[in-house]
Design brief:
The protein is mainly α. The chain contains two helices and no strands.
Length: 52
């Protein structure tokens, strides 16, 4: 859980300062953090190829 919180805070901080963020982490980390990321940034403005 600590690692997930650290990763989340790091991703948010980098995105907020304008960095383009690409993270390679276990798939479950993304699924677990998706609700928090959506609350932080809202729905994506554009769709990524192959994703709904």
């Amino acid at each position: 859980m600590f690692r997930d919180q650290y990763i989340f805070r790091l991703l948010v901080a980098r995105a907020r300062r304008g960095d383009r963020v690409f993270a390679v982490i276990g798939a479950s980390h993304v699924v677990v953090r998706e609700p928090a990321l959506l609350m932080e940034f809202g729905q994506p403005a554009t769709k990524v190829h192959g994703l709904p």
